[in-house]
Amino acid sequence: MKKLKWFLISVFCLVFVPLSVKAASGTISISGSSKVVVGNQVSITVTLSSGTKIGSWQMVLNYDKNILQLTSSSAESGGTAMAASSATGLTKKSYTFKFKALKTGNANLSIVAYSAYAFDDMSVLSLSTNGKSVKIITQQELEASYSKNNDLKSLTVEGFEITPAFNKDTLEYQVIVPEGTKEINIGAQVSDSRAHVSGTGTQAVTEGTNSFPIVVKAENGSEKTYTLTVEVKDEHPINVKVGNKNYTVVKLRENLPTNVYYQEYSLKINDFDIPAYKSASTKLVLVGLKDESGKITLFTYDEKTKKYGTYIEIGTNKNTVYPLENAKAPVGYKQDTLKINGEEVTVYRYQEKSDFVIIYGVDIETGHKGYFLYDTKNQTIMRYNDEYITDLQAKNDLFKMIIYGFLGLFVILFIILIKLGKRKKGPKKEKPAKTKPTKKKTKKQVKDDFDF
Fold first, then answer.
1. Which tens digit of pLDDT belongs to each residue from 179-188?
2. Mean per-residue pLDDT for 424-429?
3. Residue 116 has what pLDDT?
4. Are residues 221 and 136 both part of a single domain?
5. Over pLDDT 90: what percentage of the chain?
6. What pLDDT, in 10s, does the model give residues 318-367?
7. Most buried of the four, 18, 132, 164, 211, by CB within 10 Å?
C-alpha cells in the first residue's frame, strides 16, 4: 500500500508538474553594409554565438547569385558552407564573405541548413537567425542620397558675445576682445551629424583685426563658410597705406613673422617702440604690417623718408634674394615683369616662353649684388654666371671684325683688278669704211663701154 502511494505521487509529478530544464540556445546573425554601388565590393559577416560553449556546428549562407558574385570566403570549404568543431568549445565563431555587386536591385542573404551542438553534452542548441538585405545602386543614386546640409547649429567664442546673434543663414560675425588678448576659443556645432566643420578650437589673435573662416562641409561635399572677425582692441593704432591697401603697424615682437637672415631691431614710429628686423648685408629694415583681414606681412621701412615698401624674398636652400631695380639688362635679354610670391618683380627674358629668367638683386645672407638665374617652373634661384656669354660675345665681335676685314680686302682687290684690266687693252682699231656694193651692169651697158 505504501509503495503504491509513492508510485502514484511520482506519476502525478511527471504528468502535472512541468520540467524547469530548458535546452541551451544560440543565435546566427548576418551583418554588413546595407548599401553598395554597382561594381564595388560588399563585405558580409556571419556570426554564430551562444552563452553555452559550442562543440560543433554547420550552416550555409544563401544569397542571390543574379545580383551578387562571391569573390572571397573564410569558410572551411572556401564557399558558403560553414561546418567545423572545436576541441575546447567556443562561444562565438565568425565568418567573412566578400561579394561583388553585379547590378542594381535588392540582394537578400539568409542562413539555411543550420545546426549546432553543445560542447559539454552534445545536446542540440536552439538557434535563431536573421536575414540581411543589401541595396545595390548606381554611383549617381548614391551621391543623390548624400545629405546637402552644410549649416551650423551654433557658433560661439568662449567668454565673449558675438554679433549679430547667431543664425544659420547669417555668414559674417564680429567679436571685440580686450587689448593684450593672445588667443580665443571658437566653438561650433553642425546641424547634420554627417557634416564636418573646420576652423574651430583655440586660435591665436594679434592686435587689430583677425579673420577666421569656419567651413562646414556637407556629406555631399558642398561647403559653406562662416566668417568670424575678432577685433583685439588697440588704443593707439598706427595706420599706414601702402599702394591702395590699408595696414596697421605691428607693435608686438611675438606677432612678427620670423626671418632667419635678419637681426632683431627696434625703432621709433609715432613715439612707439616698434619691433623690426635689420640686415647688415642688405641694409634693409623690415617692419610688420597687418592688413584688414588680419594677415601680417613684412615690409621695408626707410628710417629717413619714413616710407614703407613691399618686401619679397626669392629663396632656395642655397640662395635667398631680395630683388632690386636695375635699368641695364644682360646682353641679349629683354626687360619684363613676373609675379613671384604675389608681387610683381622686374625680370629679364631671353625668349618669351622660356622657363628661365634673370633677376637683379642682393643675396640676403652674403650681401652679394648681381644677376641671378630664376627657374619659374621649379621656383629655384642661383647666381647667374655670364662669363660664358661675355666670352662668346667677345668672340662673336672678333669674328664679325674678321669677316668685315675680309669683305673690305675683297672689295679693294676687285677694284684693283678692274683697273689693271683697263690698262692692258690697246687703242681701238679703226674699222674700214663701208663701201657701197656695185650694181651689176646690164648687157647694154657693157656693150656701150666697148663702143668707142
1. 889 999 999 9
2. 56
3. 96
4. no
5. 56
6. 678 888 887 678 878 888 888 888 888 888 998 888 888 988 888 888 88
7. 132
| 292 belongs to a structural domain | yes
Q: Which of 347, 366, 387 is the last residue of a domain?
A: 387
User: What SS3 string covers the chain?
Assistant: CHHHHHHHHHHHHHHHCCCCCCCCEEEEEEEECCEEECCCEEEEEEEEEEEEEEEEEEEEEECCCCCEEEEEECCCCCCCEEEEEEEEEEEEEEEEEEEEECCCEEEEEEEEEEEEEECCCCCECEEEECCEEEEEECHHHHHHHCCCCCCEEEEEECCECCECCCCCCCCEEEEEECCCCCEEEEEEEECCCCCEEECCEEEECCCEEEEEEEEEECCCCCEEEEEEEEEECCCCCCEEEECCEEEEECCCHHHCCCCCCCEEEEEEECCEEEEEEECCCCCCEEEEEECCCCCEEEEEEECCCCEEEECCCEECCCCEEEECCCCCCCCCCEEEEEEECCEEEEEEECCCCCCEEEEEEEECCCCCEEEEEEECCCCEEEECCCHHHHHHHHHHHHHHHHHHHHHHHHHHHHHHHHHHHHHHCCCCCCCCCCCCCCCCCCHHHHHHHHCC
Q: Which of 259, 281, 310 is the last residue of a domain?
A: 310
Contacts of 253 (CB under 8 A, 6+ apart): 264, 275
Q: Which domain holds residue 300?
A: 239-310
Residue pair 286/309 in contact by the 8 Å Cβ criterion: no
Domain-located, residue 57: yes
Does the pLDDT value for residue 406 go beyond 50? yes
